Inverse folding.
């Protein structure tokens, strides 16, 4: 083969490769493209980035473990919506609900005139069927015995035991149309490419590998609130691309974490860009494995907690965006449940090195040579703080704690393998301590149950998925049972007060700060966003409150 | 022919070893797909749902050896199963929908870098100490040793954001659908420039230096002097006598790189939000999505081995010494 011929062959191969690649991508991307998108309509779509999906798959199945964006926000809707920013509940597909006096059932009255996007009426049968399907495919709802539709607009849920936390659990599950889903051969595995829902934006349009549009539901039950033409989702493989799009003004909503947001995002257009990080996320805790000595000693837990400088933790670790936690353990999400007298008299969640030292001395962990403390068996007071390597913010939180502890003579080493290895250790109880999230429900029941309920404690070696720190308390159990059986919210509040007192006494774990709910927006094209002064929802795009934002925004006039 | 058969046998064994590793390595990682999913959801799932999810996703609880034989059977019959992180999309669909972009980006960048790099290497060696030889290698090595992420971000910021010459994300504009129109093809081309350019920039130095070094050795051979003595045109000596003989290592390297293109360009995909299998592979590893991981590893292994096999055959054509052996 001569040189020219060789290069010619190479050129042809390269060209062939390129055309082949185009064909491949062209074909696959063509699937599901419906209709053409005009450039003129583009300006009216609310554009939102999705930072952890490099590409989209046309799968709108709500049972998928990784659900496509907006499936549970704008396509399907739930019976009610709890807004953690204000602590209020908005009736949605249900107009009212009534718990039975014995706490063993709830009856929801459904809204009249709601239609599915294909024009069929929304009826009580749909609700009953959704829960049947949910239990069959995804499980959960163990307490739920039967769901009965009464007529077209009443649904009664009966439980095997009095169970008050059920209200939000049931009320916030998105409802599916029975006439569509009962016809599917395998609902758990169906791609549901053209979903039928009750939400404001349900019509999938111009679906491509890295973007798709949801257009107006033609049969929405509050047409006066569909003021935007549609929602456009953009796919990004990681925060960097999404942050650039936000900084560049290409997206209207930026729900992902943006470092140094004042400078990188807001300063580019102060008039239109805002961020708001309400402390409604879960409480982030430093958990100590109470199945191990010395962490089974309440004095040790409290002393270590007193040695932690939470201001420094939130300032250095969380860039000042988080709010230090107190001894109720409750985050901003539970504002209305907080026990003021406990909150105002916190001791062990405030930085106090003298008290920490005294408590450790008293508990029998004396300072030895070089100011280092030893355990009761004479070994050095040393342990690990495990955090996943990819969470740079929590890693610096752990480092701050480690430095703080050195001041009371305790050595804590930060251990940061991959998150998977860290969580595997948490699950089987093979860890010293770690930085973890906690339950974040409308009701504080789950938070207290998973931090100090005996039923959630599993022995070391047996996998558990909550209560990693393995702490149970009999007194809390009694209060929790009482709480679950009490349907009246004002009485629940009294029990929650006692739970907080118990929490304050036993210190099941070390609360650090309320996790912020990230969110920023650019109101150049759309107005009506939730803000600190008008907290009708948070700025999350993955929470039940998202639909409140979608039905409030309107194009700028 | 015997040579090819022998190579084929070798590749079959290599293939078996690598698919066995593909099977074992993910299973040595701690945790399982469902508990990872649970941890990532950070308590938005109920613990009671875990068993059900395990059943839905088809997480295998059989003994390892039984899983292994099932796995071998599936691989040989081309059944790669259903992806867990992209459930319920089949693995073939997840890979198939993105591998085209990966091939387009990786292939274009590789061909440009290899062709231009080799030509520059040939020129540099031919005129040793000339302008090309003294200026380019240090410059290209300088650029090539930047962290790729930084270089890509810089290029994106300068050419995409500040100057606005090129689009800053995705493989084509979301306002036009894929079609075989000039508009779409040119749009894809514009979106390809920055990602491909940055890959070319960091890889071209290696090609150039490699070619330059072998070429210098070849230039010292007697047959070059002989060709010069015969009075052949310099261009003919440069390409047909020196470059052809110096090209063998480059062909090997090209074959290897061609295979690895299938693995995707993770950092490029992250910075330019370009579609492709690189980010998918990262997500699969993080989520312990065994079927998708196996599918991707299998594709990469097969591509690397296939490319090497083709290079082996090409070698027979290029280098007579291999033939006579």
């Amino acid at each position: 083969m001569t040189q020219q011929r060789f290069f010619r062959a190479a050129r042809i191969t390269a060209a062939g490769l390129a055309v082949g690649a185009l064909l491949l991508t062209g074909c696959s991307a063509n699937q599901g493209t419906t209709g053409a998108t005009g450039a003129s309509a583009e300006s009216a779509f609310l554009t939102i980035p999705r930072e952890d999906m490099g590409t989209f798959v046309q799968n709108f199945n709500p049972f998928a473990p990784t659900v496509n964006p907006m499936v549970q926000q704008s396509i399907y809707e739930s019976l009610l919506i709890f807004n953690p920013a204000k602590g209020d509940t908005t009736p949605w597909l249900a107009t009212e609900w009534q718990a039975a006096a014995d706490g063993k059932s709830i009856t929801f009255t459904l809204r009249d005139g709601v239609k599915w996007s294909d024009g069929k009426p929304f009826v009580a049968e749909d609700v009953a069927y959704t829960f049947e399907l949910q239990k069959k495919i995804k499980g959960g709802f163990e307490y739920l015995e039967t769901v009965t539709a009464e007529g077209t607009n009443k649904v009664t849920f009966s439980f095997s035991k009095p169970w008050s936390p059920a209200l939000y659990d049931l009320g916030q599950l998105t409802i599916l149309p029975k006439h569509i889903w009962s016809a599917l051969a395998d609902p758990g595995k169906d791609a549901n490419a053209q979903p039928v829902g009750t939400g404001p934006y349900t019509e999938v349009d111009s679906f491509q590998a890295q973007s798709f549009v949801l257009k107006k539901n033609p049969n929405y039950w509050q047409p006066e609130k569909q003021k935007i033409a549609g929602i456009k989702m953009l796919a990004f493989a990681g925060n960097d691309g999404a942050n650039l799009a936000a900084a560049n003004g290409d997206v209207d909503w930026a729900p992902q974490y943006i470092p140094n947001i004042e400078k990188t995002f807001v300063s580019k257009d102060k008039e239109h860009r805002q961020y708001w990080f309400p402390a409604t996320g879960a409480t982030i805790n430093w958990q100590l494995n109470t199945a191990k000595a010395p962490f089974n000693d309440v004095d040790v837990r409290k002393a270590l907690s007193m040695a932690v400088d939470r201001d420094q933790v939130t300032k250095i670790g969380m860039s000042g965006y988080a709010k230090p936690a107190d001894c109720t353990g409750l985050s901003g999400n539970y504002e209305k449940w907080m026990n003021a007298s406990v909150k105002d008299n916190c001791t062990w969640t405030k930085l106090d090195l003298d008290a920490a030292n005294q408590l450790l001395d008293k508990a029998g962990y004396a300072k030895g040579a070089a100011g280092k403390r030893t355990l009761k068996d004479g070994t050095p007071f040393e342990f690990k703080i495990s955090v996943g390597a990819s969470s740079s913010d929590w890693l610096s939180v752990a480092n701050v704690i480690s430095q703080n502890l050195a001041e009371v003579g305790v050595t804590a080493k930060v251990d940061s393998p991959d998150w998977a290895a860290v969580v595997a250790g948490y699950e089987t109880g093979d860890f010293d301590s770690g930085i973890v999230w906690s339950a974040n429900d409308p009701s504080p029941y789950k938070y207290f149950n998973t931090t100090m309920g005996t039923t959630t404690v599993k022995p070391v070696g047996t996998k558990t998925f909550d209560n990693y720190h393995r702490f149970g308390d009999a007194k809390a159990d009694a209060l929790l049972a009482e709480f679950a059986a009490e349907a009246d919210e004002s009485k629940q509040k009294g029990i929650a007060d006692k739970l907080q007192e118990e929490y304050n006494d036993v210190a099941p774990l070390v609360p650090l700060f309320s996790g912020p709910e990230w969110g920023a927006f650019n109101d150049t094209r759309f107005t009506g966003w939730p803000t600190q002064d008008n907290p009708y929802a948070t700025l999350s795009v993955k929470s039940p409150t998202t639909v409140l934002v979608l039905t409030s925004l309107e194009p700028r006039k | 022919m015997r040579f090819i058969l022998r190579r084929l046998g070798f590749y079959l064994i290599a293939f078996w070893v690598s698919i066995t590793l593909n099977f074992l390595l993910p299973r040595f990682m701690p945790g399982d797909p469902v508990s990872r999913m649970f941890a990532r959801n950070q308590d938005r799932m109920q613990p009671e749902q875990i068993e059900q999810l395990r059943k839905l996703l088809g997480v295998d609880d059989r003994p390892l050896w039984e899983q292994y034989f099932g796995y071998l059977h599936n691989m040989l019959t081309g059944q790669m199963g259903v992806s867990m992180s992209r459930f319920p999309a089949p693995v073939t669909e997840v890979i198939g929908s993105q591998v085209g972009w990966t091939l387009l980006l990786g292939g274009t960048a590789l061909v440009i870098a290899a062709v231009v790099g080799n030509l520059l290497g040939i020129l540099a060696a031919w005129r040793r100490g000339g302008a090309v030889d003294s200026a380019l290698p240090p410059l290209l090595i300088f650029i090539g040793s930047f962290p790729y992420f930084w270089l890509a971000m810089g290029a994106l910021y300068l050419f995409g954001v500040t100057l606005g010459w090129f689009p800053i994300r995705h493989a084509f504009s979301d306002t036009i659908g894929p079609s075989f129109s000039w508009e779409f093809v040119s749009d894809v081309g514009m979106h390809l420039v920055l990602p491909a350019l940055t890959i070319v920039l960091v890889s071209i130095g290696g090609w150039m230096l490699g070619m330059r070094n072998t070429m210098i050795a070849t230039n010292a051979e007697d047959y070059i002097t002989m060709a010069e003595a015969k009075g052949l045109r310099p261009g003919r000596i440069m390409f047909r006598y020196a470059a052809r003989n110096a090209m063998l290592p480059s062909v090997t390297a090209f074959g290897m790189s061609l295979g690895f293109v299938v693995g995707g360009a993770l950092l490029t995909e992250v910075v330019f939000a370009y579609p492709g299998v690189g980010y998918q592979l990262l997500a699969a590893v993080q989520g312990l999505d065994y079927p998708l991981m196996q599918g991707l590893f299998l594709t990469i292994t097969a591509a690397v081995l296939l490319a090497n096999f083709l290079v082996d055959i090409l070698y027979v054509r290029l280098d007579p010494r291999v033939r006579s052996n």
